[in-house]
Amino acid sequence: MWLVSKIKQILMVMKPGVVTLDYPNQPIPAPDTLRGPPTFDHHKCIGCGGCANHCPARCILTRDVCQELRVMLYDGSRCTYCGRCADVCPEGAITMSNKFQIASDDKDDVTTRMELFMMTCQRCGRCYEMEKTNSIDRMDLRGFRYDNLEQRALIRKTTDTFSTDALAETAKYKRPTRQE
Fold first, then answer.
1. Checking DSSP bridges between strand 94-96 and strand 38-40, what pairing results, if any?
2. Are 24 and 86 in contact (CB under 8 A)?
3. Which comes out higher in pLDDT, residue 28 or 89?
4. Could you please report the per-residue DSSP string of the chain?
5. Interior angle at CA 56, CA 153 and CA 88, nearest 5
6. Overall number of domains in the chain
7. What is the C-alpha to C-alpha distance for residues 86 and 84, in angstroms, rounded to an integer?
8. Residue 68's CB: how many other CB atoms inside 10 A?
9. First to last CA, the chain
10. Whole domain around residue 109: which residue ranges?
11. 143 domain residue, yes or no
12. CATH number, domain with residue 120
């Protein structure tokens, strides 16, 4: 009697067929609604820094190296893929990709660094992008920024004119250590 029940169980289990996927050999496409890491289009970016201001994970850092050069650093190891940077970008320079196979043991594989050349107004000295003059005004973000890219630290320091003293001061920034 028990032999008959075991044979019925074996036949029942064999009926559905193979239920696992041959994943590495035949990857399935990601769904359209998947929000993966952001991709940056440096041709569209005007360097307004709105993405860095609104990032809850603080993974986008902005630093003005000199009057005309702004460096933006995206640290993907901290990103939660919330999509706020893409929502706030006035020019659509940030889009969320649908990549999900991004595991790496090298931090530089998930880091994006953009160096943007900023034009300056001859009258006021304020930076602007030649083709898109209204976007910075729409974001209402003014001033030069001095985030520390080496320490990957967001420093809320801005000035109306470029200051080498502020740049040197934030370059010395060290993260707090535990006191024992």
1. antiparallel
2. no
3. 89
4. -HHHHHHHHHHHHHSS---S--TTTSPPPPPTT----EEE-TTT-----HHHHH-TT--EEEEE-SSSEEEEEEETTS-----HHHHH-TT--EEE--------S-GGGGEEEEEEEPEE-TTT--EEBTTB-SHHHHHT--SEEB-BTTTTB----EESS--HHHHHHHHT--------
5. 110
6. 1
7. 5
8. 13
9. 70
10. 34-168
11. yes
12. 3.30.70
pLDDT for 40 beyond 60: yes
Give the count of beta carbons closer than 10 Å to the beta carbon of residue 165: 8
What is the rounded CA–CA span in Å between residue 144 and residue 158?
5
pLDDT tens digits for range 133-153: 444 444 444 677 778 887 777
What is the token pair recorded at 152?
């990957």
